Amino acid sequence: MGAMDLSAIEAERRRIREEHLAGERPASTARGVHHVALLSSDVERTVRFYQNVLGFPLTEMIENRDYKGSTHFFFDVGNGNLLAFFDFPGLDLGPYAEVLGGLHHLAISVDPETWRGLRERLDAAGVAYTEESGVSLYFRDPDGARVELLADPLGEMYGNAVL
Hints:
163 residues, alpha+beta, 4-stranded mixed β-sheet, 10 strands
């Protein structure tokens, strides 16, 4: 892989920002994220991790309407937002992979005190993580999806207002 022209990348970022962030921001047509759906290879293992380790209560389990035998299950991640999962028994799904158009990571906002407590819970559960900037913990869930716990308030990222 060749050297990147960082000044050209920054110039393009500046051009896009000037074109698309100029003027007053219109209201969004969306009400919010209803749920983000990930895949699970083991329903109970996923429930134990997200509910018992991370403290996201399981809210419901129903059959997936699109695939008989598949479970669609949901966790409360606060503010009326849900994290959902599907399992697909009988399908030979490969391991998690980051691909264009796919999930890079899921960032979940928690208050700073909770963030510190969750770091302790990750330690107690033996979950490896990387801490960045004193406000982010990055780790992989049992199926390899990358998750970030972020102590910044909603609408902020590392001291920058993003909303």
